[in-house]
Write the structure tokens for this entry.
Amino acid sequence: MLLYRWLQDVVNTKGGAKALIYRDTYLSWRGLMHRVDRRADEFRSVGVRPGDWVGLMLGNVPDFLILSLALSKLGAAPLPLDPTTSTRELEMIMGQTPMRGLITRPRGGDAPLPTAPAGAAKGKKQAPESRRRLQGTLLSCSIYPYDPRPVPKQSEEMIGVVLFTSDSAGDPKPVERTHANLAAEAEHVTAALKVDGEDRTLLTIPLYHSFGFDVGLVATLRAGAAIYLEDEVAPSRIIKLVREQQITLLPGSPTLFEAMAKLPAAKPLTHKPIRFLTSGAGLSATTVEGFHAKYGVRPLACYHTTETGTVAIDLKGQAGEIVGKPLPGVELRITDPASGKAASTGKPGSLWVRSDAVSPLGLARGQAEADASSVGSRSADGWYRTGDLASLDRTGKLKLHGREDDLVRLDGKRVALGEVEGCIESFPKVHAAQAMVVSDPLGGPIVVAKVVLKERAKVDAEAIIDHCAKLLAPHKVPRRIEFCKTL
């Protein structure tokens, strides 16, 4: 209900202004609300009720935002999913989340999955109880039977969205975000970046990604800023849109800003304010200076996780691993990974975060309670262990130093290298494998694997890549295989 209430607030103040722009079409805030209300009625007619979770396997298209707001109106929660999610991962997701419905593109999700949604009603078939096209679209809506979830009495405790990330083994991990979490996240981002109703946000980061959802939908909607959706992430096109539409807020991947810095000489941007926001560690000094020389602005490094929301933003746009000071309302502590004691100033250690935006980790609560000090867990007093190694300097700025486990970030998405290695080693002719992330001059960061074959075995690299493509999400599949005798 929270997101829809924010929409109502904006409609009451600027109903005729531009709200959602996608390619050559746009909706006003009043027009957006009209479409949201129609979809909410349609969801209600197929049996979606308060407390239900509905999967949205969509990219950066208007339907994603409209359907998310429609679910919010009903007191249900969207469950954003990458449209390229592998069959194996989708099966795991459906097996651990009580999903009432699933919205997909044509043919997506048509075949019943071998695992019924978590919480499915006993004795019910695993196939959807109904399947239909959403009116006026080609989107499929599958409704699954399951035992209804109890709805919290307090609105703040209701689940506003369920976002997916990867656990330390590389498996999908659902993260519940309550209304209170989303409200805190909106407050943190809008206050730090001074986002208001005059801003124009261009979304290149997918909305199904937590960074895109939090900054591009939650914070932008709360501020009443216009939302420009883009599903073609070509650097030349992006900078053209920034100029023509006078975009003031652009959350993007490090790869995008690196590519934009390499474009042919361009005139500096003249409109203000401009905030280019990149998730993860800062860009290299060469990229930052080249970007500033071309456009007159610096990309701002932002530390954000699915479980914690936005933690810190380097508002000065420095290069390197510094991601700025924690935002107001966010507490940090650094501990020695072995002893658990507080690390000294400047010394890397385990990063813990506490704020109102930190998820309660509902579906992962059993694991968290079993060992409240493990990576990815939350303690009884609200401290979440991120799994990142970090340090705080004397001025209170946060610096990242890598991970405690083998998780790495690939354009904002988490990849467990152990999962990639295990997948390759399951290939019959492979003896051992070692995965790593390298920077490709043309493609940016990619997964590369060194492979040792079994004695006298012969196989080409494409066969191993095809094997991985069947079992892993696209961003986890190795782009290059290097054969060697030993690792």
Observations:
- The domain at 232-405 is CATH 3.40.50.12780 (Rossmann fold).
- The radius of gyration is 22 Å.
